[in-house]
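Deviations from the work plan: none for this task. Representative record:
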Amino acid sequence: MTALTGRQIPDRLSSPASRALKSWEALLLIVAIAIFILNTLASPYFLDPWNLSDASYNFTEKAMIAFAMAMLIVAGEIDLSVGSIIALSSTVMGAAMAAGASTPLLVLLGLGTGVACGAFNGLLVARFGLPSIVVTIGTMSLFRGISYIALGDGAFTGYPSSFAWFGQGYVFWVITVELVIFAIAALIFGILLHRTSFGRMVYAIGNNATAARFSGIRVDRIRFILFLLTGLMSGIASVCLTSRLGSTRPSIASGFELEVVTIVVLGGVSILGGSGSIAGVVLAAFVMGLVTFGLGLLNVPGIVMSIIVGALLIAVIAIPRLWSMTRRA
Amino acid sequence: MRYLKSREAILALAIVVLLGVIASRFPGFVRPSNLARVFTDTAPLILLALGQMAVILTKCIDLSVAANLAFCGMVAALMNGAGVPLPLILLAVIGLGASLGAINGLLVWRLGIPSIVVTLGTMTIYRGTIFLMTGGAWINAHQMTSGFKAFPRHVLAGLPIMAWIAIAAIALVALLMTRTALGRAFYAVGGNPHAAIYAGISVGRSQFAAFVLAGALAGLTGYLWVARYAVAYVDIAGGFELDVVAACVIGGIAIAGGAGTVAGAVMGALFLGIIKNALPVVGISPFWQMAISGSAILIAIAFNATSQRIPGRIILKQAGHRT
């Protein structure tokens, strides 16, 4: 995605937005705390630990994928097929379950399908040099299409009770398994992006892929690995979501890709590549979770929530730019 | 220019082959009356693909077109319920669609927010606003006047008005692209923004114009959609934005901007439209539709990429493109 949108010749490094980005996490933290307080005031049921714990389901599955997606977007690519990878992975697990597979095998097949889908995307993008936004629009239809072919308007239900642990289980009294997976993923991706040479190469590719290639970075291999990671995280999310719902339908997780991208962008990752942090993504996930949960407590319908999330997305990005424009003027 | 021409020729050939394969088993499908029906069915996709093409040419993308369509369709249905005459409704939806496109365009132009982020946001906002207007209620056929419903289906010289509107739009956009300064600007801005600036073309203004065009076409399609299917609700044309992008991509519009033709976009839309219409005829379950159109997209881009590949390593050219 090389969308060029500025009025002047683009100069990413010195754009006014990049300076605002440095305090982005601070801004998100303030927003999160403000919404938390508002929620507490809005409903006496908000602070109930069981409520809060169940509320985490609002964002954990999407946020797990958002970490891998953040790295992909930092590298200047995008994966719009993640929702469809979930569907295909869930379909494979459903078919295996119907054939009598045990829970460990189900999980393995779920993750394996995710990785395979990621490898397919990565191959097309990295090996054949095709634009990722188009490739993944294609595989989005393809992967979900295969689920529809396999299932039609039917569904797989009757997962074994041991499988339910991933999406419905609790680890420490009230902490959900999904929240633990989310936390571990945040840690791993945080280290991978910010503390390893691999992470630095990802930034380098996002800032200037040509320069990165000439400085000896194996750009295509890293792109391929990033797609594998997004596939793997989609596979993990698929295990969680399938386990939580206890059934597979071909329409499962539809529209996930846009919510995942929304979390990543809200987290301060530049859609043009080259900048962003995992901490921002974690905070954005909490903001999204708190907003939807708070609005849910107030009985706001889901579609109105999506207006607010959409407006939040634009506002959070527009306000720092408006601010810097007025200061320059 | 030579390979651009041949790409469209190959796409035309692919459509002919596709029709031939279908006709070999179901000759009824290629009867002129049925082809006219397929073309009419594909008219909304063609109209939106024309607008999306202009947007993609300028290195942007508009994910809000389907939501814009649904919004304008609902407004058209509401206006009809309030007794507004049809010509006024038509003007209103085109204007409303253009304004919604202008909102996208302004955010991209004035604030420099990437178009994918802007339209991701406005997509949910526009669709959500329909819910706020109606409380989620449906407007059904019996709540629409017969004149409102009949207009797009009215047959004129063998083709419904809806098909004629698509043909007129194709002609107008083709004129705009090839015969006006604005059309040139779309290509210039997408092909090389830096050079465009030096040539005195405003990048942002051209992108704004592209969004307004896409919006106006989406607004018009909103009325046509609602009138033809005689129902308006929040989720009409859900997910259609990706079909529209897919049609452009199959038609050879380069997603990085600057390259593509009206003929390509129209044929890309027709290709998808024929597949969609042929599946039930050939006896393949409609559940195959997504997988088949997904594969078609992948094959099309793989083909485009191989024909566009720069031979040898021209470092400066690469560096200039990677903005």
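Confidence is low (pLDDT under 50) at residues 1-14 of chain A.
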